[in-house]
Amino acid sequence: MKRSKINAEIRHMEEMIKAHGFEIPPFCKWSANEWKTKGAEYDEIRDNMLGWDITDYGLGRFDEVGFSLITIRNGNLKIDKYTKTYAEKLLLVKEGQMAPMHFHWKKMEDIINRGGGNVLITVYNSTKDGEFDDTDVTVNCDGREFTVPAGTKVRLTPGESITIYPYMYHDFHVEEGSGDVLLGEVSMCNDDEHDNRFYEPIGRFPEIEEDEEPYRLLCNEYPRY
């Protein structure tokens, strides 16, 4: 991705956040130069990769496969000094975008429609060898438990949420014609390095073409103090 595209997507998400009255942490507003002044007291942000994240899953088709997100808080399963057992994210999925089918080995999460359009989340159980299971899927949405056939698209309107359990395959995309969606994620600790099982192997971070200065640094770009 071109840096100019990344900058534009971050600005678009900032506008969406402002429109829905959500406030983000101060570190999400720092410039690259401001980051150079931040000492070791901010290592939790660096070590746990808090802040801005743009993913195209290494496919180079961000407007089709990918989304923008902010990791607001997170623990760390590899570093003992970070004892939080939970994480929170804010995601922007544009109409026409989707996140690929995957499950988590350990993480349980709630995906919440924070505002905008409607999101469709496709659900499957997983077999022991990581294939789709054709059995019915038990779904929990805002205190209601119900069963749907494998491959059902669960529709979340603004304010609604779904609980995603370990080994539950899921993808998500925006319902056509409903507009961009701001999603929340509340979960157990997030570990993108070890806890994601994608149905089709893909990458994570984009390759960046530096055609302009960064507006915000991404979570894998912070300078060490």
From TrEMBL:
Keyword Metal-binding: yes
Cofactor(s) recorded in Swiss-Prot or TrEMBL: Mn(2+)
GO MF entries: D-lyxose ketol-isomerase activity; metal ion binding
Domain of life: Bacteria
Catalysis: reaction(s): D-lyxose = D-xylulose
SUPFAM superfamilies (alphabetical): RmlC-like cupins
Family in the record: Belongs to the D-lyxose ketol-isomerase family.
Record's protein name: D-lyxose ketol-isomerase
Species of provenance: Sporofaciens musculi
